[in-house]
Model the fold of this input.
Amino acid sequence: MAAKFSYPLMSHYRPECFVIAPIGGDPAVTEVYRDDIKPAVESLGIQCVRADEAHFTRPIMEEVLDRISRAYFIVADLTNERPNCYYELGVAHARGQTVIHIIDKTTRKHFDVQGYPFIEFGEPKQLRRKLREHIVKLVLTTKGSDDDDFRLGRFGRCAWRNGRLLTAEIVGRGKTRWNVRILVYATPRWPELNGSATFYYDRTVEPLSETVKVKNGIAETMLSGIMGGFTVGARCDDGKTNLELDLSRFKWPIPTP
Done:
């Protein structure tokens, strides 16, 4: 059986959205990123990073490809038909990432991506609203009806509600099992989380649920010996807010031999 274990609290973790976009040459593209894409992502408590904002300790493309693989999800802006953006998008598709495609209405879509859904934008304010809606629907909402996952669908099917985000971080691994950090915190412009939060786990975890006190606006815990993804439920704000997270959405490291 997997079990909860004592682990030192870490600094505030936020999952990362990596943005594939043209960099340099067109100020309008950077303006869209700065004023619309980044605010839409970060309003949901998720970190938003573009390649020119990252700190690299190795060749830039090696770092970019690694970030694409590890990201919670990808936003791909194909405005201006830049070859590097199409290359990076192909990598994201090949690695099974959730991708939200966006493009300026004046830009042509290449044949090999025409079948994918796009947010086509003209007015920036419209893009910010639509992108936020897509993130909630495509990334933060649990899907399916797996009878073996007995928490699925029982906590509202969304990891974001009432300005609270339920998220997770895969922080360690062994030969066949992982350690998983689970957190709830307030997203920007919402009142700080306080009191306590109760987490609800899969049948393979013992105990099945636990209540933790909020410290510095964050409710967090760590699970050890986890063998794979399952649905986690959370209840906070004195029972007024229910949250639901599918852990299988995260990138689980390949176990060591």
Remarks:
- DSSP finds four helices and 15 strands in the chain.
- Helices lie at 27-42, 60-70, 83-94, 124-138.
